[in-house]
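Researcher: Good morning. I'm working through a list of sequences from a screen, and I'd like to move beyond sequence-only analysis. For each chain I'm collecting a predicted structure so we can compare shapes side by side. This is the next one on the list. No need for commentary yet; just the structure.
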Amino acid sequence: MAVVHRGSKGWMLDHLTYINKTILNCERMKSYTFRPEYFDIVKPHISSSTKTTNPLLKTKTSSTKESTEVSCSGDETISQDIQGNTACYSRKRKRKHKELNQGELDALAYHIKVRDLILEGTKCLLQSEMTKSLLPRMNASNGDHNSCLANMITGDSRLAELCELAKQVPLEDKEVEDGQSAVQVIDEETQSVPDLDPFSLVTENIMNCTRIVTLMGEKYLLPPHTSFLLSDITRMHPLLNYKKFDAIVIDPPWENKSVKRSNRYSYLQSWQIKQIPIPALASPECLVATWVTNRQKHLRFVKEELYPHWAIDVVAEWYWVKITRSFEFVYPLDSPHKKPYEILILGKVKSSAYCQNREETEPIPDQQLLVSVPSKLHSHKPSLAEVLAGYIRSNAHCLELFARSLQPGWTSWGNEVLKFQHLDYFCSVEDVT
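Model: Good morning. Structure tokens for this chain:
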């Protein structure tokens, strides 16, 4: 399961285990596993030289020093990590002193506000008895992956380009105007799947096993009981006629300087994100969770403009904390550049309708952590399916927008919705063992 431990501060998650659980019982009696080298993050992304060595996790008798950052030398900074180790990491020397701009000042103020929560909450989750019992398994090496890294694929399956080409083919009037559910089903009688139309029809795998489908010559694994639509924001019509959703997770392609420079994927501006038809997709009191970068401009936009525009009340703010298999932050907590955490804003759709048979759910807690070893793949977020299960009704309809993978029981949408389902990201169990 994805949830390794649930504590008062949040959850410890195992993303790799969750992925492998979703693709059990593959057709043709062949078992696959997600390539473990994508999660083989042993050291932080910024090299450091440890000055003092402490036990892997502090014991109750250990000192409880706060994580601090002070000047070490002209181009280095001292910082304490999760385990209390004092490390000195390199920082580029700037020729001239530069005053922080308003955005940087806002980011610093926000970090100061949440840093103790991030540090102490992560320590608390790592020190739990259940987590300790899983340390050997989570820290065990899966072998020498250096040789595997050379064969790691880029994942560029041209899905976004295919979506652009598909836009040249108009949707049938009957599918859009008559409000009919535009769905194609993969079941036991489906013998030929290469002819599927994933661009204008919602595709459902209703089987209890994972199916292998071919799209434009590329093979993808479809987990059981998944549905998806491969399109961009201009071609969401089939999804609007599909069903109403009780939970919606959104991972918008936020605009930032790095994305502009690298041109890795297209991004949406704020006014375009506001055009996503959440009110038309959401059921009454739908739970909406939106991933936000650490840029304060985006955080304020979601809380003060986007959610009010969608008639959503903010109810909680969670943090995804990224650690290595050696239980260190992937970046120094007080790094002036990248932070080892991302933000998740949760809200509830306002509803004046009252349902007499409404199922009671747990209240959503605020200031919770999601701690996990991240994937090396860009924007490969951990699944929230098991985490959100207690806060939505049973048998809820759930949707992920801007998804890059599929998960059982959920509908996924995006112009790269099958990206991480590409067969090349997996290897047969026989190859691993």
